[in-house]
Amino acid sequence: MSFLVYFALLLIIPIVASSRVKKAYNKYSKIRNSADMTGAEVARKILDENGLFDVRVEEVKGQLSDHYDPRSKTVRLSSDNFHKPSVAGAAIAAHEVGHAIQDAEDYSFLKFRSALVPVATFGSNASFFFIIAGILFTWQNLLLVGIVFMAAAVLFQLVTLPVEFNASSRAMGQLVSTGVIRNNEERETKKVLDAAAMTYVAGALVALLELARFVFMFIGMNDD
């Protein structure tokens, strides 16, 4: 029964988080922001206000594929957010610009997360091979190596949390100070940003649950 509950949680947590994001985005992508500015215009305005004239704003295919690329110094916004003057588009554009500001200011958690990328990528890809082999052959050392690799990937997700929450906080501050949003739009914008942040929380929680399961499995092997 406990295993059923565990696997149910692994499935339900991401689904609920994803559903919240889609619900908030679908609602507020249909509401125009009072400044009547597209996401691209919002991003450019905030970047210029912060002296980040060298950071480009580009359109990228897909829905909610928005991101900031620190290597090319580019804010990329999905088509709807790039072209439409919605509350959701302004919120997401400001959030991605928040990452650009973090990058310009050498925000410590962003630097740490960037340094973890190669280790976390390798750990995420390799961990299950070692874990499965360790379980199949009852080889504790292989299982332990897999757990260490998985822990690196989990650490990356945990470090991502302060990075994302800080970017959202910066986004709210910038949207208000530049006059892009006013009055009740602050509450609406916060709903979009909070829903998006929950996907990172859900991802980190699921990763921690998975890591804990294999740690307990390793402890059980030692007890045997």
Automatic annotation (TrEMBL):
Pfam families: Zn_peptidase_2. The chain crosses the membrane at residues 115-137, 142-163, 197-219. InterPro entries: Zn_peptidase_2 (IPR007395). Keywords: Membrane, Transmembrane, Transmembrane helix. The keyword Transmembrane helix applies. This is Zinc metallopeptidase.
